[in-house]
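User: Reviewer 2 asked us to show a designed sequence for the structure in our supplementary figure. I'm pasting the structure tokens here. Could you produce the per-position amino acids so we can include them in the response letter?
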């Protein structure tokens, strides 16, 4: 992989997904700093965030001093983050599955188009009707 090439990862928590660009030589600590910057309302410091990667059926904690490449992250990887609460306890890793916006496949889209084919479509021309 070229040294200067930027890659991205998806960082997930609950229903949130943050896309972050990184370089292979970035440390996990750098990723946590980028995550704090990418979330304007975040009042947590990088020390109050833990990053995990899912391997098999379990989550593995990523060490702050590891580089992204030594941690085994690749472009388009999913990693997960949790916060430390006021009592010093860490949240459990939790993400929610997304439901697709359209449940139907291409056949259903064609049926919708056929059903609405008799509805006249009008187009407004730009600039018409302006004084």
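Assistant: Here is a per-position design you can include in the supplement:
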């Amino acid at each position: 992989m070229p040294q200067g090439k930027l890659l991205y990862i998806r960082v997930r928590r609950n229903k949130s997904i943050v896309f972050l660009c990184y370089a292979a030589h970035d440390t996990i600590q750098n990723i946590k700093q980028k995550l704090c910057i990418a979330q304007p309302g975040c009042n947590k410091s990088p020390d109050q965030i833990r990053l995990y990667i899912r391997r098999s059926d379990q989550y593995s904690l990523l060490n702050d001093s590891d580089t992204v490449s030594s941690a085994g992250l690749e472009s388009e990887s999913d990693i997960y983050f949790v916060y430390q609460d006021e009592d010093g306890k860490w949240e459990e890793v939790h993400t929610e599955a997304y439901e697709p916006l359209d449940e139907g496949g291409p056949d259903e889209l064609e049926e919708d188009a056929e059903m609405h084919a008799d509805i006249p479509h009008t187009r407004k021309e730009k600039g018409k009707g302006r004084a």
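For the response letter, you might also mention the following. The domain at 1-117 is CATH 3.10.20.90 (Ubiquitin-like (UB roll)). The radius of gyration is 22 Å.
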